[in-house]
Amino acid sequence: MKIWTMLAFCIVCFYANAQNANQTPCSSPEAAQFDFWAGDWKLTWNDTSHGTNHVEKVWNTCVTQENFNDPSSNYSGKSWSVYNAKYKMWQQTWVDNQGEYIALTGGMRGDSMVLTTAERKVPATVSSTGKLLNRMVYYHITGQSFDWNWESSGDSGATWKLSWHIHYDRKS
Q: Residue 118: helix, strand or coil by DSSP?
C-alpha cells in the first residue's frame, strides 16, 4: 500500500511540474499590470516643466523598461520593473545620471500601482524622526493618460507628503 501511495504521489508531482514547465514565463495576469505604461509619453510637472518617457516591454516581455528624460535640466534615468511571481509583487530598480539608485516593491492597490522603498535612516534635516519611506503612485490610469506622484513619509507610512507630481499624456 505504501508503495502505491508513493507512486501516486510521484506521478502527481511529475504532472504538476510538467504543467508549470509549459507555462510561458511572465504570462500571469499580474505580470501585465504595468502594460498601461508601455509607449511614448509627454510629461508635464509644475504646469511648465516638460519631459519625455519611452517605456517598453523587453526580455520576452518580462521586464518593463523606462527611459525618462528632462532635457531642460539635463536629467535622465532608467528603471526596470518585473513582476516577481515567487514573491507575488512588483520589483523596480531606478538609476539616473546623478548617481541615484532606488529599489522599490509593491503592486496594484485598487486602480493604482503603488511601489514603495524600504524604510531607511536619514539625517534629522530630512525627517524629524530620522526615518524615511518613499513611494510612487500611478493613478487616474486610462489608455491615453495617467498621473504619477513621488511621495515621502517620516512616520512609517501613516501620512504621506507629495514631493513631485507628473502628468503623463500618450504621444500621438
A: coil
Q: Do residues 133 and 115 touch, judged by C-beta distance below 8 A?
A: no
The grid coordinates of residue 85 equal 511571481
List, for residues 98-149, the tens digit of each pLDDT value: 999 999 999 999 999 999 999 988 888 888 888 999 999 999 999 999 999 9
Q: Which three cell numbers stand for residue 122?
A: 536619514
Instruction: State whether residue 5 is helix, strand or coil.
Output: helix
Taking only the tens place, the pLDDT of each residue in 46-82 is 989 999 999 999 999 999 999 999 999 999 999 999 9
Domain-located, residue 5: no
> What's the grid cell of residue 34?
504595468
User: 14 lies in a domain?
Assistant: no
Q: How many domains does the chain have?
A: 1
Whether the CB-CB separation of 84 and 106 falls below 8 Å is answered with no
Compute the distance between CA of residue 126 and CA of residue 96 in angstroms, rounded to an integer.
Answer: 21
Asked if 121 contacts 131 with a C-beta cutoff of 8 angstroms, the reply is yes
Range of the domain at 44: 26-170
Residue 71 lies in a domain: yes
Does any domain span residue 20? no
CATH code for position 65: 2.40.128.20
